[in-house]
Amino acid sequence: MTDQTTPTPSFLDLGVPEPIAHALEKNGKTSPFPIQRDTLPDTLAGRDVLGRGRTGSGKTIAFGIPLVANLAGGEAGIASHAAAKTRRPNRPRGLVLAPTRELVTQIAETIKMLADPAGIKVTTIFGGIPQRRQEAALEGGIDIVVAAPGRLDDLMRQGLVSLEDVEITVLDEADHMADMGFLPVVTRILNQTPKQGQRLLFSATLDNGVDNIVKRYLHSPVMHSVDAAESPVPQLTHHVFEVAGKSEKDALIEALASGTARRIFFTRMKHQAKKLAKQLTARGIPAVELQGNLSQNARDRNLAEFVSGEARVLVATDVAARGVHVDGVELVVHIDPPVEHKAYLHRSGRTARAGNEGDVVTIVLPEQRGEMRQIMRAAKIRVTPKPVNPMASNIDPEVLALIGELAPRVDPKETERRRAEAQAAQQRAAGHAPAGTGKSQGANARRKRSRGGRGRSGQGQGQGQGGQGQGGQGRNSQGRGGQGRGRAPGSGAPRPPRS
Q: Distance between CA 195 and CA 218 in Å, rounded?
């Protein structure tokens, strides 16, 4: 009997320019995923597309290919370096909006992989860091900007970037931007792009105002949906472990964190993420946190440590759930049930990505059992809760299987030393002297040095309201006391110390 199975088309078969297809092949991507296979014929032809698919379905490459290929002018344009001839300062021709800094960075990395062989320049724009480098990148001429809405809106208001030349706009994780309250800013941004440009929108759902964005800004969009909205990932195995109390819960968390494979633990609160990462590290399990109170440099260092495998555990909050796109995560652990079923699915989607398998564990205290039943019912996931006691002499085989091979414990002092070195290297790469190794280069410090430093005109001691203070803290002999300012008697003459 003849096999009637239709072979899966290659990227070249779908019309992807050869240099881009070769870049994909070099990165181990030889066969298109369904969302890519379905959308590429329309997106490469310049049509507006509404793509719906669960997390981990390959959406970034699905919109990254047409974004790069269409701006480059196809194979002929790539060969003639057409993009360089049309590049203008502060006026990008491609725009991607995403909700979080982590997602912006990771989207840009994927697009850059496609863009480099096509001669397309890519940069990122997001908050939490000084904007001068972003200004410099825009001034140097850029083709594609991958941005978080808030900082891009700020730069637009300052007149530092114009969207009048944008030919292709992509909204990724539009439903998450709606959840975070970004739609008014997204609307302002879209209003500054040409009406005739190509627009691609990717979202798991069309609620919370996303449907209005589609109606207002997409022109007769072709809709492609590879999965039902908010559908569970079939490659995932779900586990609900019931524990009797806090001691059993803490022991189970440490046990699940102790394996060699990469895993993510989710918390509801930022302080919980910070505390748990510190506790695990102190127990010899290198763990890093990812939550909203971190500086951008700290977030970058922590994510790099997790991606490199130096830290096997990432402890994250819900805000970071959709911003973490790391391959090879085998286990996701909810240390508490999330607030609702959508958060459960988005968190869980950090594993079993790109067709791989993964496990998801939720740890449930007695008072949380009813809440957990409601979440699983709404998520359309059927799983039987299992009471476990990790402190028992015989640990449940299901728990042991999830732990896997035990990783050797790491001296916390060695972990802290390595992290201090990474921070110093990051500061040097940014052109800053690491703490304690040089002078401050801030404007205030330079101004003080230009006038001879602080306290050069008077080196005596002055008495403040609450004790003694150092005199000469400026261009006169004023000193700062223990609880306030004091003035040394006379014209800067030192006062004898009190016995």
A: 9
